[in-house]
Write a structure and sequence with these properties.
mainly alpha, two-stranded parallel sheet, 383 residues
Length: 383
């Protein structure tokens, strides 16, 4: 990628061309569809086509996609508009679809001219996360009242479990042969004593969600609460805002740090990178992955900027606002895994009716061809 020019920025950056605008809009639409499909199939638990065939999942997916992409669009436009205000020439933001996690890798903007001052660099770097943070707060305020809290984890599943269909039916004989070959050469370890458990993904609350939940709901969302699509979009917005504000190199927080202390920014970036990597072993593995990715992408060095003139008062206040946004969104362990005994789960069918131990035993008996089943009524009967 070519480096930005070191020439002074234009007084009025040129408007994007029609081709650039079409490309940016096309990538935005593709990313919106990726977010829509990913939520419906991953987080709403639907099948491959359910976001397009199931009205309820389609509605939830649309709410999430509109909310999350609005947060991201505000973030990118914050960078873009403030950079233009300071006379920096740049490309339009190009959103990147990624049909995993939240459905996108965010967006990229390429600067064609360097920031003319420390204040310009700081305001450009902070404008994105601040704009996204404000929109995330609005989405959170709208979405939190739809939170469904629970004292125990609620698992919604298709009941009775549908039989394999399509390609899985055709491949069943192959799986049986492979299973027989594996059994001949490998003895599985004994089943450990104790209750059978199910791993659950637990999303921590960012501090601002604890505060807003207390104001709007009387208490923060609980550990096993189910957020509405809008609430989850706000959570994702906070999560990515905090990650972007880490004081590392070419992240938004790195630009802010570089503008505040240009002579020490490189060392501070490496220290922050090391602490993030260590956090992957002490708190959440995702921090280590993020730090390694940044290292290999060469994103540990911010944009070069002249140490003079000093920061303006507005730039200093912007830096303080960015710090508030970071503290409000940062979660040391944003995602955790918990092994929950099956007999402590609240199992429900798609209509919300409880699935009892008798339901499970009757289904197993029918699936076994009518043979008796003396399995106890605890959660251990589910394989």
């Amino acid at each position: 990628m070519p480096r930005p020019s070191s020439l002074p920025p234009r007084a009025t950056p040129p408007a994007p061309t029609a081709a650039e605008l079409r490309r940016a809009v096309g990538m935005f639409v593709l990313t919106w569809l990726s977010v829509y499909w990913t939520y419906g199939t991953t987080w709403a638990g639907g099948g491959m086509l359910s976001p397009f065939t199931d009205p309820e999942i389609a509605s939830q997916s649309a709410q999430f996609a509109v909310a999350l992409m609005t947060i991201f669009l505000a973030h990118e436009l914050g960078h873009y508009l403030v950079a233009r205000r300071h006379g920096m020439e740049q490309t339009l933001p190009l959103f990147l679809p990624f049909p995993m996690a939240f459905g996108t890798l965010g967006a990229i903007i390429r600067l064609r001219t360097l920031p003319p001052s420390r204040s310009a660099l700081l305001e450009m770097g902070a404008a994105g996360p601040l704009a996204g943070f404000v929109v995330a707060l609005v989405v959170m305020a709208i979405g939190l009242p739809g939170t469904e809290d629970a004292a125990t984890p609620v698992i919604t599943m298709a009941w009775p479990p549908p039989p394999p269909s399509g390609i899985w039916t055709l491949l069943a004989p192959v799986f049986e042969v492979l299973d027989g070959l594996l059994s001949a050469v490998w003895t599985p370890p004994p089943v450990p004593d104790g209750p059978v458990t199910l791993p659950l993904t637990i999303m921590a609350n960012p501090p601002i969600m604890d505060l807003m939940g207390t104001v709007l709901l009387g208490a923060p969302p609980g550990r096993y609460a189910s957020l509405s699509p809008l609430g989850f979009a706000a959570w994702a917005g906070c999560f990515l805002t905090a990650m972007n504000l880490l004081p590392i190199g070419q992240l938004d927080g790195g630009h802010v740090t570089n503008a505040l202390a240009p002579t020490h920014a490189r060392r501070l970036s490496l220290v922050a990178l090391g602490l993030t990597f260590a956090g992957g072993f002490l708190t959440w593995p995702g921090w280590a992955f993020w730090s390694v990715l940044l290292f290999f992408l060469g994103a540990t060095r911010s944009l070069p900027v002249h140490p003079t003139p000093p920061l303006t008062l507005r730039a200093r206040l912007t830096a303080a606002a960015a710090l508030v946004a970071f503290v409000s969104c940062f979660m040391p362990v944003p995602i955790d895994m918990e092994e929950v005994p099956l007999d402590q789960l609240d199992l429900r069918d798609e209509d919300g009716r409880p699935i009892t131990a008798d339901d499970i035993r009757a289904w197993r008996t029918e699936a076994a061809g009518g043979a008796g089943d003396d399995t106890s009524s605890t959660g251990r009967e589910i394989d």
